[in-house]
């Protein structure tokens, strides 16, 4: 099922349970603003490459819109629209004074050099700078982006509007970012897993884990679970998948992925088919990549 169709279906179900007025329901399904921009950059070899960037601003009734920016080949308007809508509900449920937004660029960050990623980020910021801001829409890191990406956005935005460190969250601590932000989502996975296992009279220690996705969320979740006695038996990312039934050495794997931009080639595990990661034997499966991977099939 399409991500936006699924999100709208769930919202309509919640609206019926809450008894929302149909006019309000329809209003909340339509985003405040949809932005689609063309981003052309010179590559390191002198050729030109064009990418499509999106920013969907869903709702600002509760405050400035808030949501990440992801870089991934499968980024499309429907996915970004669904994620922006979910950000509206998340900020409301958490009772913080923000609305919801989401953004992304359809690209494979693993195929781009650091300088190419910087140029792409700066061009994207140039195209949307007048539609984001401290009191309007505050981006953050997501899949395929990180504190460095936020630093580029901050710097480019500040060229137009003056130094504005609050225009993004998830930036480096040297630029005013929050301590612990990098690990926050992965730590949330740890807490949720602990709570679930506790309901069944179990703990993290001694359990076998499979982690699909070894980006910011998956890698931190694996690291924290490992530190708490869990055994990570298999992981995957966009480059491939590896397995070690005795448990992967997570510190060594983290070092490898930093140096090689992916898990592929790690000597401490056997390569496996990435498509089999969801069916590998384990006690706990953690899908930390794209949404919608667990379905009827």
From TrEMBL:
Which keywords annotate this record?
NAD, Oxidoreductase
Cellular component per GO? mitochondrion
Protein source organism: Davidia involucrata (Dove tree)
Q: Which family does it belong to?
A: Belongs to the Glu/Leu/Phe/Val dehydrogenases family.
Say which domain of life the source belongs to.
Eukaryota
Question: What EC number(s) is this enzyme filed under?
Answer: 1.4.1.3
Q: Name one GO biological process term.
A: L-glutamate catabolic process
The record's Pfam families line, in alphabetical order, gives: ELFV_dehydrog, ELFV_dehydrog_N
- Describe the location of the Glutamate/phenylalanine/leucine/valine/L-tryptophan dehydrogenase C-terminal domain by residue ranges: 178-297
Q: Name one GO molecular function term.
A: glutamate dehydrogenase (NAD+) activity
Q: Which reactions does this protein catalyse?
A: L-glutamate + NAD(+) + H2O = 2-oxoglutarate + NH4(+) + NADH + H(+); L-glutamate + NADP(+) + H2O = 2-oxoglutarate + NH4(+) + NADPH + H(+)
What name is this protein filed under?
A: glutamate dehydrogenase [NAD(P)(+)]
Root EC class? oxidoreductase
InterPro entries named among the record's database cross-references: Aminoacid_DH-like_N_sf, Glu/Leu/Phe/Val/Trp_DH, Glu/Leu/Phe/Val/Trp_DH_C, Glu/Leu/Phe/Val/Trp_DH_dimer, Glu/Leu/Phe/Val_DH_AS, NAD(P)-bd_dom_sf
């Amino acid at each position: 099922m399409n991500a936006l169709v699924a999100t709208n279906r769930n919202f309509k179900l919640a609206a019926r349970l809450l008894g929302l007025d149909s006019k309000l329901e329809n209003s909340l399904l339509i985003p405040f603003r949809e932005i689609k921009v063309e981003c052309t950059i010179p590559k390191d070899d002198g050729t030109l490459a064009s990418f499509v960037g999106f920013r969907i601003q869903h709702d600002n009734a509760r405050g400035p819109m808030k949501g990440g920016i992801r870089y991934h080949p499968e980024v499309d308007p429907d996915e970004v629209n669904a994620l922006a809508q979910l950000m509206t509900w998340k900020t409301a449920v958490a009772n913080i004074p923000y609305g919801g937004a989401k953004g992304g660029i359809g690209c494979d960050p693993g195929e781009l050099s650091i300088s190419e990623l910087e140029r792409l980020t700066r061009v994207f910021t140039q195209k949307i700078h007048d539609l984001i801001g401290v009191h309007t829409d505050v981006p953050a890191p997501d899949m395929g982006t990180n504190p460095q990406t936020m630093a580029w956005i901050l710097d480019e935005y500040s060229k137009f509007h003056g130094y504005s460190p609050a225009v993004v969250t998830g930036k480096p601590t040297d630029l005013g970012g929050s301590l612990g932000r990098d690990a926050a989502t992965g730590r949330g996975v740890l807490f949720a897993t602990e709570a679930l296992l506790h309901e069944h009279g179990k703990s993290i220690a001694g359990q076998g884990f499979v982690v699909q996705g070894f980006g910011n969320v998956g890698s931190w979740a694996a690291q924290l679970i490992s530190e708490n006695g869990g055994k990570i038996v298999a992981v995957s990312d966009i480059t491939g998948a590896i397995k070690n039934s005795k448990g992967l050495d997570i510190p060594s794997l983290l070092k490898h992925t930093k140096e090689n931009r992916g898990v592929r080639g790690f000597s401490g595990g056997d390569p496996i088919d990435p498509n089999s990661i969801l069916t590998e034997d384990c006690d706990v499966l953690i899908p930390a990549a794209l949404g919608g991977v667990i379905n009827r099939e």
